Amino acid sequence: INECLTNNGGCDQNCNDNEGSFTCSCRSGFSLQSNGRTCQSNDQCVNSGCQHRCVNTGNSYFCECFNGYTLDSNGRTCNNINECLTNNGGCDQNCNDNEGSFTCSCRSGFSLQSNGRTCQSNDQCVNSGCQHRCVNTGNSYFCECFNGYTLDSNGRTCNNINECLTNNGGCDQNCNDNEGSFTCSCRSGFSLESNGRTCRDTDECPTAGCQHRCVNTFGSFYCQCDTGYSLNGNGRNCDS
């Protein structure tokens, strides 16, 4: 009777028919158990030589590596992956390769954010001592002054610019320096134009108070009297 024809002779894997009997056997990588029928996987990993992890497949095995490593061509050794070589490891600034891993860091003046990759500029202006304005550049800063001032050699203090020292500030007549600015003005007998710099002659005659005649001059005026009159000492009235 060929017992193997019925339910594989009750064998887990191989059924071998013999004259008047039968035996069970197992495929490579498995061992026949004491009941003579069941096959149990052998531990192929015992002498695998895997550096990190061994995965038993019953009749064979394969090696695996921890995260941050790649399997060598010999199928056993694990080599470190330099994550920094690909897209700088996803780091915003500095990528530092470690054995099996990597870390991101930031240049001076920046702080690493909670995501471990992004760098945010520190506020260098907090203790800058700039008198007017501070410009934060991430890893440093510089001071600026308002219009009408120049930065002192100490890099922080702002000194007033006397615009009147250069071309009279562009003023036609008088230049008046103020803190951080300047204004133009005109001498008596002149009026400042709308451009704030040019002075034009003022015709004082309409309000001069001359009794007879008024003669406007550049920047001034004088009174005249009709024939037979003389100008009073006040410069305006005429005496007969």
From TrEMBL:
One Pfam family hit: EGF_CA
Q: Which PROSITE patterns does the record cross-reference, listed alphabetically?
A: ASX_HYDROXYL, EGF_2, EGF_3, EGF_CA
Q: Which residues form the EGF-like domain?
A: 41-79, 121-159, 201-239
Where on the tree of life does the source sit, at the highest rank?
A: Eukaryota
Q: Where in the cell is it found?
A: Membrane; Secreted
> Which GO terms fall under molecular function for this chain's record?
calcium ion binding
PANTHER family given in the database record: EGF-LIKE DOMAIN-CONTAINING PROTEIN, VON WILLEBRAND FACTOR C AND EGF DOMAIN-CONTAINING PROTEIN
Q: Which keywords accompany this UniProt record?
A: Disulfide bond, EGF-like domain, Endocytosis, Glycoprotein, Membrane, Receptor, Repeat, Secreted, Signal, Transmembrane, Transmembrane helix
What's the protein name? EGF-like domain-containing protein
- Give the record's GO biological process terms: endocytosis
Give yes or no: UniProt keyword Glycoprotein: yes
| Cellular-component GO terms for this entry | extracellular region; membrane
Q: Report the SUPFAM superfamilies cross-referenced here.
A: Growth factor receptor domain (SSF57184)
**Membrane protein topology class:** Single-pass type I membrane protein
